[in-house]
Give the backbone structure.
Amino acid sequence: MEDLIPCKAAQSNFQRWLESGNGPMTGYVGERADTLLIRLEKASSVDYLYRTSIAQDSGISWSNSLLFCGVYDGENHALYLARNVQTIFTRGPVPLVAEPGNSMMEDICGKINRRVEDILANDKSNLPVQKVTGWLAAHSLEHYQKYGAKEDAIQMLFEDRAPDGVFHSGYAMEELPEAAFLAWLQDPEGFIQTEAEAYIKSDSENVLRQFLENDALLAEYQALIQDTGSPIHRMKAITDALNGSNAKMVTVTVQKGEGELTFKMEASQMKGHHAYYSSYYIPAADRRRFQQVFGRSADFKAEDVIRITYGRNTIYLAEPAQAESTAKDGGEIE
Protein backbone atom coordinates (compact mmCIF):
# COMPACT_ATOMS: atom_id res chain seq x y z
CA MET A 1 0.00 0.00 0.00
CA GLU A 2 1.22 3.53 -0.75
CA ASP A 3 2.49 5.54 2.19
CA LEU A 4 -0.18 7.96 3.39
CA ILE A 5 0.11 11.61 4.38
CA PRO A 6 -2.37 13.25 6.79
CA CYS A 7 -3.96 16.38 5.29
CA LYS A 8 -6.70 18.90 6.06
CA ALA A 9 -9.41 19.96 3.64
CA ALA A 10 -8.93 23.55 2.49
CA GLN A 11 -12.33 23.92 0.77
CA SER A 12 -15.61 23.66 2.66
CA ASN A 13 -17.32 21.94 -0.28
CA PHE A 14 -14.59 19.27 -0.32
CA GLN A 15 -14.99 18.71 3.43
CA ARG A 16 -18.76 18.40 3.05
CA TRP A 17 -18.29 15.88 0.25
CA LEU A 18 -15.91 13.84 2.41
CA GLU A 19 -18.42 13.76 5.24
CA SER A 20 -21.65 13.13 3.42
CA GLY A 21 -21.32 13.30 -0.35
CA ASN A 22 -22.90 10.35 -2.14
CA GLY A 23 -21.91 10.94 -5.75
CA PRO A 24 -18.60 11.77 -7.40
CA MET A 25 -16.95 15.18 -7.04
CA THR A 26 -15.37 17.07 -9.91
CA GLY A 27 -11.95 18.65 -9.47
CA TYR A 28 -10.96 21.72 -11.48
CA VAL A 29 -7.78 23.36 -12.74
CA GLY A 30 -8.89 26.96 -13.14
CA GLU A 31 -12.28 26.68 -14.80
CA ARG A 32 -11.53 23.37 -16.52
CA ALA A 33 -12.75 20.10 -15.01
CA ASP A 34 -9.94 17.53 -15.15
CA THR A 35 -10.50 15.05 -12.30
CA LEU A 36 -13.40 13.00 -10.99
CA LEU A 37 -13.21 11.93 -7.33
CA ILE A 38 -15.12 8.92 -6.02
CA ARG A 39 -15.69 7.64 -2.46
CA LEU A 40 -16.17 3.94 -1.78
CA GLU A 41 -16.92 2.53 1.65
CA LYS A 42 -14.24 0.18 3.00
CA ALA A 43 -15.55 -0.27 6.53
CA SER A 44 -17.81 1.48 8.98
CA SER A 45 -16.87 5.20 8.88
CA VAL A 46 -13.87 4.47 6.62
CA ASP A 47 -13.97 5.40 2.93
CA TYR A 48 -11.38 4.89 0.22
CA LEU A 49 -10.91 7.72 -2.28
CA TYR A 50 -10.28 7.13 -5.99
CA ARG A 51 -9.85 9.39 -8.98
CA THR A 52 -10.07 9.22 -12.74
CA SER A 53 -9.06 11.79 -15.32
CA ILE A 54 -11.49 13.85 -17.37
CA ALA A 55 -10.41 14.57 -20.94
CA GLN A 56 -10.98 18.18 -22.00
CA ASP A 57 -12.79 17.21 -25.18
CA SER A 58 -14.64 14.01 -24.28
CA GLY A 59 -14.92 13.68 -20.49
CA ILE A 60 -14.50 10.12 -19.25
CA SER A 61 -14.37 7.05 -21.50
CA TRP A 62 -14.36 3.29 -21.12
CA SER A 63 -10.55 3.39 -21.12
CA ASN A 64 -10.52 5.31 -17.83
CA SER A 65 -9.42 3.45 -14.72
CA LEU A 66 -9.65 4.34 -11.04
CA LEU A 67 -6.52 5.33 -9.14
CA PHE A 68 -6.39 4.99 -5.35
CA CYS A 69 -5.99 8.41 -3.73
CA GLY A 70 -6.33 7.97 0.00
CA VAL A 71 -8.50 7.23 3.02
CA TYR A 72 -11.10 9.27 4.88
CA ASP A 73 -11.78 8.37 8.50
CA GLY A 74 -15.27 9.73 9.09
CA GLU A 75 -15.35 9.02 12.82
CA ASN A 76 -12.32 11.21 13.46
CA HIS A 77 -12.77 13.52 10.44
CA ALA A 78 -9.25 12.64 9.31
CA LEU A 79 -8.02 12.61 5.71
CA TYR A 80 -4.98 10.62 4.53
CA LEU A 81 -3.74 11.00 0.96
CA ALA A 82 -1.44 8.70 -0.98
CA ARG A 83 1.93 10.38 -1.38
CA ASN A 84 2.04 9.98 -5.17
CA VAL A 85 -1.23 11.89 -5.78
CA GLN A 86 -0.86 14.79 -3.34
CA THR A 87 -0.27 17.26 -6.15
CA ILE A 88 -3.78 16.65 -7.51
CA PHE A 89 -5.20 17.98 -4.24
CA THR A 90 -2.67 20.74 -3.50
CA ARG A 91 -2.33 22.39 -6.93
CA GLY A 92 -4.01 25.55 -8.16
CA PRO A 93 -4.81 28.89 -6.53
CA VAL A 94 -7.53 27.28 -4.38
CA PRO A 95 -6.29 23.77 -3.51
CA LEU A 96 -8.55 21.10 -2.11
CA VAL A 97 -6.24 20.38 0.83
CA ALA A 98 -3.66 22.23 2.91
CA GLU A 99 -1.19 21.50 5.69
CA PRO A 100 0.07 18.10 4.51
CA GLY A 101 1.67 16.30 7.44
CA ASN A 102 4.41 13.70 7.75
CA SER A 103 4.52 10.10 6.56
CA MET A 104 2.03 7.90 8.38
CA MET A 105 4.41 4.96 8.01
CA GLU A 106 7.13 6.92 9.80
CA ASP A 107 4.65 8.20 12.39
CA ILE A 108 3.30 4.73 13.22
CA CYS A 109 6.79 3.19 13.31
CA GLY A 110 7.94 5.99 15.60
CA LYS A 111 5.10 5.32 18.03
CA ILE A 112 5.80 1.58 18.02
CA ASN A 113 9.50 2.19 18.67
CA ARG A 114 8.75 4.48 21.58
CA ARG A 115 6.40 1.85 23.01
CA VAL A 116 9.07 -0.85 22.66
CA GLU A 117 11.52 1.40 24.51
CA ASP A 118 8.96 2.10 27.24
CA ILE A 119 8.27 -1.61 27.71
CA LEU A 120 11.97 -2.54 27.92
CA ALA A 121 12.90 0.53 30.01
CA ASN A 122 16.53 0.34 28.78
CA ASP A 123 16.98 -2.93 30.67
CA LYS A 124 17.90 -6.05 28.69
CA SER A 125 16.69 -8.25 31.54
CA ASN A 126 13.16 -7.35 30.43
CA LEU A 127 13.72 -9.31 27.22
CA PRO A 128 12.40 -12.89 26.91
CA VAL A 129 15.95 -14.08 26.02
CA GLN A 130 19.28 -13.37 27.71
CA LYS A 131 21.66 -14.92 25.20
CA VAL A 132 22.26 -14.51 21.48
CA THR A 133 22.17 -18.03 20.06
CA GLY A 134 21.49 -17.49 16.36
CA TRP A 135 24.68 -18.04 14.35
CA LEU A 136 24.37 -14.91 12.21
CA ALA A 137 23.41 -12.62 15.10
CA ALA A 138 26.14 -14.08 17.34
CA HIS A 139 28.77 -13.67 14.60
CA SER A 140 27.67 -10.08 13.97
CA LEU A 141 27.82 -9.29 17.69
CA GLU A 142 31.29 -10.79 18.10
CA HIS A 143 32.62 -8.85 15.12
CA TYR A 144 31.17 -5.61 16.45
CA GLN A 145 32.57 -6.16 19.93
CA LYS A 146 36.04 -6.86 18.50
CA TYR A 147 36.20 -4.25 15.74
CA GLY A 148 33.06 -2.25 15.07
CA ALA A 149 32.64 -0.69 18.51
CA LYS A 150 36.14 0.80 18.42
CA GLU A 151 35.64 2.17 14.92
CA ASP A 152 32.32 3.74 15.92
CA ALA A 153 33.84 5.19 19.11
CA ILE A 154 36.61 6.84 17.08
CA GLN A 155 34.09 8.18 14.57
CA MET A 156 31.97 9.65 17.36
CA LEU A 157 35.04 11.27 18.92
CA PHE A 158 35.88 13.00 15.65
CA GLU A 159 32.27 14.12 15.24
CA ASP A 160 32.15 15.50 18.81
CA ARG A 161 29.41 13.07 19.75
CA ALA A 162 29.11 10.62 22.61
CA PRO A 163 27.07 7.42 22.95
CA ASP A 164 24.10 7.88 25.23
CA GLY A 165 24.08 4.24 26.39
CA VAL A 166 20.33 4.07 25.73
CA PHE A 167 18.61 1.38 23.67
CA HIS A 168 16.87 2.77 20.59
CA SER A 169 14.32 0.46 19.01
CA GLY A 170 14.71 -0.33 15.31
CA TYR A 171 11.20 -1.40 14.33
CA ALA A 172 10.58 -0.43 10.69
CA MET A 173 8.19 -1.04 7.79
CA GLU A 174 9.28 -1.23 4.16
CA GLU A 175 5.75 -0.23 3.18
CA LEU A 176 2.51 0.57 4.98
CA PRO A 177 0.35 -2.61 4.97
CA GLU A 178 -3.32 -1.94 4.32
CA ALA A 179 -4.44 -4.24 7.14
CA ALA A 180 -2.06 -2.56 9.60
CA PHE A 181 -3.31 0.93 8.73
CA LEU A 182 -6.95 -0.12 9.07
CA ALA A 183 -6.19 -1.77 12.42
CA TRP A 184 -4.47 1.43 13.54
CA LEU A 185 -7.50 3.52 12.48
CA GLN A 186 -9.87 1.33 14.48
CA ASP A 187 -7.75 1.12 17.66
CA PRO A 188 -4.53 3.16 17.58
CA GLU A 189 -3.48 2.42 21.17
CA GLY A 190 -4.21 -1.29 20.92
CA PHE A 191 -2.43 -1.60 17.59
CA ILE A 192 0.73 0.14 18.87
CA GLN A 193 0.85 -2.05 21.98
CA THR A 194 0.26 -5.26 20.05
CA GLU A 195 2.90 -4.46 17.44
CA ALA A 196 5.45 -3.45 20.09
CA GLU A 197 4.96 -6.67 22.05
CA ALA A 198 5.09 -8.77 18.88
CA TYR A 199 8.32 -7.08 17.80
CA ILE A 200 9.98 -7.72 21.17
CA LYS A 201 8.93 -11.37 21.07
CA SER A 202 9.74 -12.13 17.43
CA ASP A 203 13.02 -10.22 17.22
CA SER A 204 14.25 -10.61 20.78
CA GLU A 205 17.75 -11.87 19.91
CA ASN A 206 18.42 -8.96 17.58
CA VAL A 207 17.11 -6.56 20.20
CA LEU A 208 19.45 -8.17 22.76
CA ARG A 209 22.29 -7.84 20.28
CA GLN A 210 21.58 -4.11 20.04
CA PHE A 211 21.76 -3.82 23.84
CA LEU A 212 25.10 -5.65 23.91
CA GLU A 213 26.49 -3.58 21.04
CA ASN A 214 25.49 -0.43 22.93
CA ASP A 215 27.42 -1.72 25.95
CA ALA A 216 30.49 -2.44 23.80
CA LEU A 217 30.37 0.99 22.18
CA LEU A 218 30.05 2.80 25.49
CA ALA A 219 32.98 0.83 26.96
CA GLU A 220 35.19 1.55 23.92
CA TYR A 221 34.30 5.24 23.94
CA GLN A 222 35.02 5.64 27.64
CA ALA A 223 38.35 3.83 27.26
CA LEU A 224 39.28 6.08 24.33
CA ILE A 225 38.39 9.25 26.23
CA GLN A 226 40.50 8.18 29.19
CA ASP A 227 43.52 7.23 27.03
CA THR A 228 44.61 10.83 26.45
CA GLY A 229 48.04 9.72 25.23
CA SER A 230 46.57 7.83 22.27
CA PRO A 231 47.64 9.07 18.81
CA ILE A 232 43.94 9.24 18.02
CA HIS A 233 43.63 12.30 20.24
CA ARG A 234 46.48 13.93 18.29
CA MET A 235 44.68 13.18 15.04
CA LYS A 236 41.55 14.74 16.54
CA ALA A 237 43.51 17.85 17.54
CA ILE A 238 45.00 18.08 14.04
CA THR A 239 41.56 17.64 12.48
CA ASP A 240 40.03 20.34 14.69
CA ALA A 241 42.87 22.72 13.86
CA LEU A 242 42.43 22.17 10.13
CA ASN A 243 38.66 22.48 10.28
CA GLY A 244 39.02 25.74 12.15
CA SER A 245 41.41 27.20 9.57
CA ASN A 246 39.47 26.43 6.36
CA ALA A 247 42.88 25.84 4.75
CA LYS A 248 43.29 23.85 1.53
CA MET A 249 47.09 23.63 1.82
CA VAL A 250 49.10 23.83 5.04
CA THR A 251 52.74 23.74 6.05
CA VAL A 252 53.63 20.70 8.16
CA THR A 253 56.75 20.05 10.22
CA VAL A 254 57.48 16.37 10.83
CA GLN A 255 60.18 14.79 12.97
CA LYS A 256 60.98 11.09 12.61
CA GLY A 257 64.06 9.58 14.18
CA GLU A 258 66.94 11.95 13.47
CA GLY A 259 65.22 13.60 10.51
CA GLU A 260 63.09 16.73 10.49
CA LEU A 261 61.42 18.39 7.53
CA THR A 262 58.93 21.16 6.83
CA PHE A 263 56.77 20.78 3.72
CA LYS A 264 53.41 21.57 2.16
CA MET A 265 50.47 19.15 2.48
CA GLU A 266 46.86 19.01 1.33
CA ALA A 267 44.81 19.86 4.43
CA SER A 268 41.93 17.55 3.54
CA GLN A 269 44.25 14.51 3.64
CA MET A 270 45.15 15.16 7.28
CA LYS A 271 41.57 15.30 8.55
CA GLY A 272 39.93 12.37 10.29
CA HIS A 273 41.29 9.07 11.55
CA HIS A 274 44.22 7.55 9.66
CA ALA A 275 46.66 4.72 10.30
CA TYR A 276 49.16 7.11 8.68
CA TYR A 277 49.28 10.19 6.46
CA SER A 278 50.32 9.42 2.90
CA SER A 279 53.21 11.33 1.32
CA TYR A 280 51.32 11.02 -1.97
CA TYR A 281 49.43 14.21 -1.05
CA ILE A 282 52.60 16.24 -0.59
CA PRO A 283 53.27 18.40 -3.69
CA ALA A 284 55.86 16.84 -6.00
CA ALA A 285 58.84 19.08 -5.14
CA ASP A 286 58.32 18.70 -1.39
CA ARG A 287 57.60 14.99 -1.80
CA ARG A 288 61.03 14.44 -3.33
CA ARG A 289 62.61 16.21 -0.36
CA PHE A 290 60.46 14.12 2.00
CA GLN A 291 61.63 10.89 0.35
CA GLN A 292 65.26 12.00 0.50
CA VAL A 293 64.99 12.55 4.27
CA PHE A 294 62.69 9.70 5.30
CA GLY A 295 62.93 7.17 2.46
CA ARG A 296 61.13 6.57 -0.82
CA SER A 297 58.31 4.51 0.68
CA ALA A 298 57.95 6.55 3.88
CA ASP A 299 54.77 8.11 5.19
CA PHE A 300 54.18 9.77 8.56
CA LYS A 301 51.87 9.47 11.55
CA ALA A 302 50.11 11.92 13.84
CA GLU A 303 52.76 11.46 16.52
CA ASP A 304 55.42 12.57 14.01
CA VAL A 305 53.76 15.95 13.44
CA ILE A 306 55.22 18.67 15.66
CA ARG A 307 53.79 21.76 13.98
CA ILE A 308 51.24 22.87 11.38
CA THR A 309 51.05 26.42 10.10
CA TYR A 310 48.69 28.20 7.77
CA GLY A 311 49.91 31.49 6.45
CA ARG A 312 51.79 33.07 9.31
CA ASN A 313 49.72 31.36 12.00
CA THR A 314 50.61 28.20 13.89
CA ILE A 315 47.34 26.29 14.02
CA TYR A 316 48.68 23.08 15.60
CA LEU A 317 51.60 22.55 17.94
CA ALA A 318 52.42 19.17 19.47
CA GLU A 319 51.91 18.90 23.20
CA PRO A 320 55.16 19.46 25.16
CA ALA A 321 55.25 15.84 26.30
CA GLN A 322 55.01 14.64 22.71
CA ALA A 323 57.59 17.12 21.45
CA GLU A 324 60.00 16.21 24.25
CA SER A 325 59.60 12.50 23.52
CA THR A 326 60.21 13.10 19.82
CA ALA A 327 63.26 15.20 20.55
CA LYS A 328 64.78 12.48 22.73
CA ASP A 329 64.30 10.03 19.90
CA GLY A 330 65.66 12.21 17.18
CA GLY A 331 67.38 15.37 18.43
CA GLU A 332 66.38 18.91 19.27
CA ILE A 333 63.35 20.60 17.80
CA GLU A 334 64.04 23.88 16.11
Confidence is low (pLDDT under 50) at residues 321-334. DSSP finds ten helices and eleven strands in the chain. The longest strand covers residues 32-43.
